[in-house]
Amino acid sequence: MIGYVTLGTNDLARANKFYDALLADMGAKRVMESDRYTVWAAGKGPMLMVCAPFDGGAATQGNGVMVALAAGSKEKVDALYAKAIALGGKDEGAAGPRGDSFYGGYFRDPDGNKLCFFHM
After folding, report:
1. Contact 105, 94 (CB under 8 A)
2. Which of 31, 67, 84, 108 has its CA at 20 to 30 Å from residue 95's CA atom?
3. What pLDDT, in 10s, does the model give residues 15-62?
């Protein structure tokens, strides 16, 4: 149902470096780009886009807004969460179980956007 998710950035080069390194471990690569945006995908499923806001204003993260990326296993959640932190992401909840069937690790990217790698 989800085609793509867009995250705002104030520094596209920094965002590209962060997401190129992080999403490569999920098999994602750049599928579209311009001087204003970059889009990653792993196959034909949903895509992730970072871009400068269309209105020319500063990119800001929304309180309560989060993107959750399916990692495929608990081990992959652990590895991707650790890599996000190593790349400069900020901890928002270490990888671990949340209830009986959900396992997730929460972080913010260098622009402050909140994301979660998860497995169910």
Report:
1. yes
2. 31
3. 999 999 999 999 999 999 999 999 999 999 999 999 999 899 999 988
Short-list 60, 76, 74, 75, CA closest to 108: 60
Residue 107, beta-bridge partner list? 91, 115
Task: Please name the amino acid found at residue 72.
Answer: G
Phi/psi at 29 (nearest 5 deg)? -145, 165
Q: What is the DSSP letter of 20?
A: H
pLDDT band at residue 64 under the 50/70/90 scheme: confident
Domain ranges of the chain: 4-53+66-119
Name which of 94, 86, 76, 82 is nearest 110 in CA terms.
Answer: 86
Residue 64, by phi and psi: left (phi above 0), alpha (psi -120 to 50) or beta? left
Domain 4-53+66-119 bears CATH identifier 3.40.50.720: no
d(CA 119, CA 97): 9
